[in-house]
Recover the amino acids of this structure.
């Protein structure tokens, strides 16, 4: 959804709403960006970038997770670089309630499909909210994930979890 490519430096990304959900309209369901869910919705590969006070909503069906439906999708992934600052982001990963999924109504119109998708009940899904690769260090990650939602080498990076 957002990539700060290798060499990106001193970018400020703040106060946005990032939304990823499955396409509900039948003629468009076959199209996606071709990326798997281990890459992350937000990918940072650079130095001294700030990602602050954003709202990230991922609302996906378990069967659409790639490369394997048993993986935990990644939301924010720092793949390289140093001294990035990630703070006070609200990240939600939800999936459709299985019981309601069987009662889902198909719509012939794009608008109707979007409305039906927004009205479905959802429940939380396990995910990796923040992943920092070993090739990145000296990052500061504050108040954006709980302990069990982060994959971070704490000897190389500063991390303060959201309290349980």
């Amino acid at each position: 959804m957002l990539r700060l490519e290798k060499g990106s430096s001193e970018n400020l990304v703040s106060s946005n709403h990032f939304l990823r959900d499955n396409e509900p309209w039948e003629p468009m369901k076959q199209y996606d960006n071709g990326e798997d869910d281990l890459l992350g919705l937000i990918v940072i590969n650079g130095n001294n970038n700030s990602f602050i006070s954003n709202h990230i909503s991922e609302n996906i069906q378990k069967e659409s997770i790639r490369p394997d439906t048993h993986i935990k999708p990644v939301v924010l992934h720092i793949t390289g670089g140093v001294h990035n600052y990630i703070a006070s982001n609200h990240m939600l990963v939800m999936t459709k309630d299985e019981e309601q999924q069987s009662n889902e109504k198909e719509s012939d119109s794009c608008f109707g499909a979007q409305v039906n998708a927004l009205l479905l009940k959802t429940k939380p899904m396990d995910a990796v909210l923040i992943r920092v690769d070993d090739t990145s260090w000296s990052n500061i990650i504050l108040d954006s994930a709980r302990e069990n939602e982060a994959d971070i080498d704490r000897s190389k990076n500063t991390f303060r979890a959201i309290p349980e």
The helical segments are 98-101, 110-119. The CA atoms of residues 101 and 120 lie 8 Å apart. The chain has a mean pLDDT of 88.
